[in-house]
Amino acid sequence: MKVLVSACLxxxxxxxxxxxxFCPAVTAQLTDHQLIPVCPEQLGGLPTPRPACEWQEGxxxxxxxxxxxxxxxxxxxxxxxxxHLLGCEAAILKARSPSCGKGMIYDGSFSGxxxxxxxxxxxxMLDEGIPVYTEDEVEMPQxxxx
Length: 146
What we know:
The protein is an alpha/beta fold and about 150 residues long. It contains 5 helices and 8 strands, in the order βαβαββαβββαβα. The chain has helices spanning about 25-30, 40-45, 70-85, 120-125, 140-145, and strands at about 1-5, 35-40, 55, 60, 90-95, 105, 115, 130-135.
């Protein structure tokens, strides 16, 4: 099965801070699947590194107040297009991200406060009925958890 995965979870240094969020549980649990890495923010034309962004009053803004909604929407549409083009069957996306978060996202105050909601790509995928998971929903194999 092909699975679309947030590139940062696979160790790609594409996050806003120029880092990755490598998640060994994702690769360990999906050894029999083809992983397709994507970073919707980069696909939308945003540089790495870039100012952190959060949802705020229905828009995505960076910590300087700059509206980045159009870039996030463009990147989410491209990631969704790749999902369909490559025949993916599920997605594992970065929790709490303004692009990829599912269920909980940061509230726009840049204080680390979480509120119910979905990132731009997660929302588009869920609206299409695509199975979306976050790294928080992937279990660590028992031998690595110890």
